[in-house]
Amino acid sequence: MHLLSPWSLLWLPPIWGAIILLYILKLRRKDVEVSSLYLWQQVIRDVQANAPFQKLRYNPLLLVQLLIALLLVLALSQPVLRLLARGGRTLVLVVDTGVTMRATDGSPTRLDEAKRVAYRLVGQMHPGDRMILIAAGSSPQALTGFTDNRTELRRAIGNLQATEAPADMHTALQLASELAQTTGNGGLIELVTDGCFSRMDTASLNLSNNVGLRAYTVGKSDDNVGIVAFDYRRLVGYQHGLEVLASTQNFASQPRKFIEELYAGKQLLDAREVSLAPGAMHTETYAMPEPAGPLSLTFRLDVKDDLSTDNTAYLVLAPKRLFRVLLTGPENLFLENALEVDPDLQVDVAPNYPGDVTARKYDVVIFYNTAPKTLPPGHYLFIHCSGDRSPAQLTGATASMETVDWQHTDPVMRYVDLTNQRFDDVLLSTPKPWAREVVTGDSGPLIVAGEDGPTRSLFFAFDPDQSRLPLSVAFPILVSESVRWLATGEETEGLPSRAGQPVTLAAAPGVSAVSVRLPNGSVKKVPLGPDGRALFNDTDQCGFYSVIGGYPVGTGGRSGNDRGLFAISLNNADASNIAPVKRLPFESPNPQAERGRPVVVFHPFLPWLALLALIALGFEWYLFHRRPFFVRG
Fold first, then answer.
1. Is the dihedral of CA 378, 381, 383, 386 positive or negative?
2. 584-600 exposure pattern, b = at least 16 Cβ within 10 A, e = fewer
3. What is the edge-to-edge ordering of all strands in the sheet holding 281-288?
4. Concatenated DSSP letters for 292-352?
5. Which uninterrupted H or E stretch holds 574?
6. Peptide bond before 108: cis, by omega within 30 degrees of 0?
7. Helical (H) or strand (E) element with 133
8. Buried-exposed string 198-213: b where 16+ CB fall within 10 A, e elsewhere
């Protein structure tokens, strides 16, 4: 046994001395005349020697009080028993908080079942263990630091909530692996999940050799029907209006029959009965007129299953936006026809540049074969010519050039294929520092794009007439996508609609702050970057979001006011497939990490000493009330 505070034992002699002194002190009595002494023998015995001290006599109360004092002083000295045990592990507890943990095949949900497992793991911590808790949602987050405080860990587990977005388990486990190695001795990842996260690339999951992973799975049912897609498209050609598409899939092992309902606001537009075999998918289309303003649509499945989040999907129909385009330069029928194919473009043609004042009325100005040397900030497309607002610096010319590669994800080239395209009479150039090369030829760049403050511009190094490009379907698509990017600066088509995906917000002109009202009614401020844009990541809730003071990029500000709407839904087949996985392929047992290492453990005696002192106090109370029978001279 060891004493953590041995100097506290020095209190024992003075305390014992004080107690004994109280027992040998004698009180000075007053003389009393009585008629008889027979009944006052005890008084006579006390006053026979009228001295300050008396002989110390045996008294059980004295012994008990000395024992109590001894127990209290020993408690102050903090005696501990030093033992050697296995422990000192570094534990990372990862709890899946993705949308599938909201499934009601648990008690009552899978997350509640996972919490009970997590509580048990905390209770099984060895001496010297330190644990950290990670919530594996769409954005994994460490909710505690490394601690051996079980109360803190249990409190954090109790506060866990499942989101309405899929879990990013790959990022969560990579974070857990890095944290498990912070001590240098390796660690153990304890994962509580239903295994229904998106099928991740287990080969890229890089767990260190000295890190073990042990999984505990929850869930037992696959009963779910979910909406996997909900979107719209505009009709082209002689048709007018919109077409809304909704896809549902039955993930249960039993056939299901249910009603699909389409609402505009709170008004029911259509309802259809659908029957789906196990694993089957069904797509319905709904014709809609062109809306005059932003229109909120809700698609709902009238079905009872174990996951309700994917039974409702949301969509905002943005009103059609027309872009005004000015084409200047020599006549070019191919270029004019490519612009007229897009019904969203209003095109004016002028042989010469009309001046800066007139050009401000247009969303995009296209220069073909000739351009002014100086231009004000604006949105420009330079075709086989250049100017001071061009993203490319001319260096010469070449007789011909063939395409080599292009940026397939660039907004200008999303739907364009330039394979085996050859161009004659091509301008040679180098991109300016603020520009990017979009299409690369065998002798230099063919298309360059860039943004310089308020200026957004594109440079085509070729003359379309000097190639076969105008004869292909790629040409009108290239022209249309170029104009749309120049007019709006949008780098993605439409808006992200899946829960957990970030949304780019842009501030309205003259606005310095943007806020977002979430589906639950709360409002969050979003800090803007230097370019007046911000990335909004808090999209874990499904429903309609309202942007105050700006608009979501993807609508181009089409809401027509300072309040832009966008919708977030689950729309994820992997997340709707809630069949639990009993064994995960990336489990990595590590016996050494599970056993831990030899650690010195101190077992305190303070609780036992306190209990003995309490028992002694009770015994003293009993003796005090029974003292005539225990005190003898």
1. positive
2. beeebebeebeebeebe
3. 225-234, 242-250, 281-288
4. SS-EEEEEEEE---S--GGGEEEEEEPPP--EEEEEESS--HHHHHHHHHSTTEEEEEESS
5. helix 573-576
6. yes
7. strand 130-136
8. eebeeeebebeebbbb
What tokens were used for 389? 């607002």
- Give 464-467 contacts, CB < 8 A, sequence gap 24+: 464/332, 464/334, 464/335, 464/383, 465/332, 465/334, 466/423, 466/424, 466/425, 467/421, 467/422, 467/423, 467/424
- Return the CATH class of domain 234-320+571-575: mainly beta
In Å, what is the CA distance from 150 to each residue of 115, 128, 213, 375, 633? 14, 12, 21, 67, 56
Q: How long is the chain?
A: 633
User: Is the model more confident about 447 or about 494?
Assistant: 447
Residue 166, exposed/middle/buried by CB under 10 A (0-12, 13-18, 19+)? Answer: buried
What percentage of residues in the chain have a pLDDT greater than 90? 54
Q: How far is CA 488 from CA 140, 285, 501, 552, in A?
A: 33, 29, 21, 11
Shortest CA distance to 315 belongs to which of 293, 287, 295, 292?
Answer: 295
- The CATH code belonging to domain 89-220+580-595 is 3.40.50.410
323-488 and 89-220+580-595 share a CATH fold: yes
Distance CA 138, CA 145 (A): 20
Q: Is 235 exposed, middle or buried (0-12, 13-18, 19+ CB in 10 A)?
A: middle
Is residue 319 within 8 A of residue 242, CB to CB? The reply is no
Residue 147 backbone dihedrals phi, psi, to 5 degrees: -150, 155
Task: Please give the DSSP secondary-structure letter assigned to residue 105.
Answer: S
Contact 294, 319 (CB under 8 A): yes
With bands split at pLDDT 50, 70 and 90, how would you rate the model's confidence at 51? low
pLDDT of residue 567: 93
DSSP 266: T
Residue 312 makes CB contacts below 8 A (sequence gap 6+) with: 227, 298, 299, 300, 301, 542, 569
Query: Quick one: tokens of 49?
Result: 């020697």
Per-residue pLDDT tens digits for 522-558: 999 998 888 778 889 999 999 999 999 888 876 544 4
C-alpha neighbours within 13 Å on the C-beta side of residue 257: 1
Check if the beta carbon of residue 382 is closer than 8 Å to that of residue 427: no
Task: Sheet with 422-431: list strands edge to edge.
Answer: 345-350, 323-328, 364-368, 379-383, 455-460, 445-452, 435-441, 392-406, 422-431
Q: Note whether 223 and 197 are within 8 A (CB).
A: no
Q: Structural domain boundaries of the chain?
A: 2-82+605-630, 89-220+580-595, 234-320+571-575, 323-488
Instruction: Pick left, alpha or beta for residue 279 (phi over 0 → left; psi -120 to 50 → alpha; otherwise beta).
Output: left
CATH of 323-488, one of 2.60.220.30, 3.40.50.300, 3.40.50.720, 3.40.50.880: 3.40.50.880
Q: Is 287 exposed, middle or buried (0-12, 13-18, 19+ CB in 10 A)?
A: exposed
Q: How far is the C-alpha of 61 from the C-alpha of 63, rounded, in Å?
A: 5
Query: For residue 172, which amino acid is it?
Result: A
Mean pLDDT of the chain: 85
